[in-house]
Fold this protein.
Amino acid sequence: MKKQVAIFFVLFLAAASLSAQNLISSVAGKWSITKYQSKTKMQTRSGTLIFSPDGTFQSEGIYFVVQTGLFRTDENRQVLIIETPEGISEWTASVKNDVLRLRSIKGKGPRTYMTLMRLKATDDISSIKAIEK
């Protein structure tokens, strides 16, 4: 019985570490902010975030405004760390079905929640065509 529990525990840890190691590759891409909520305001459709595979970060939107920076992940805690000229912020992150959910880790400011949808190449083309019209 002890052997079965030990095997189960090892398999559980292996599965947990495998899913944790996918966070950095899961967030890479272009994301549209569909919902932003803080203690003071709630908005929908408020910008985009781009996480490049080389670790660079670009934003256009309500929370980060227009700026660039760097990002990395803490795979053990499932945390996304964003570094901009204005400072470092940490976010608990989860990705499921092309939806990225971010929750700010308590710091100086109020708790912030964001829901983002992954933009595919066809989404970019259709949004450009809508702007041109």
In short: Strands lie at 29-37, 42-51, 56-61, 67-74, 79-84, 87-96, 99-104, 113-119. The chain has a mean pLDDT of 79.
